[in-house]
Design goal:
Number of helices: 2
Structural class: mainly alpha
Strand content: under 5%
Oligomer: single chain
Order of helices and strands: HH
Helix content: over 70%
Number of domains: 1
Largest sheet: none
Radius of gyration: 12 Å
């Protein structure tokens, strides 16, 4: 159970930081890459 909690919190922090990066970054290409990271992190919640 502790392993699942650690993975959840790692994915949660990754998703939040990447989402903030999408909003704050100036370059459109990097924002798109960060959005892909957000999608992958959120998909990890359902695995």
């Amino acid at each position: 159970m502790i392993f699942q909690d650690i993975v959840f919190w790692m994915l949660a922090v990754l998703a939040i930081v990447a989402a903030l990066g999408v909003v704050l970054v100036k370059d459109l290409f990097r924002a798109a890459l960060l959005l892909v990271v957000v999608f992958i992190a959120v998909a990890g919640f359902f695995v």
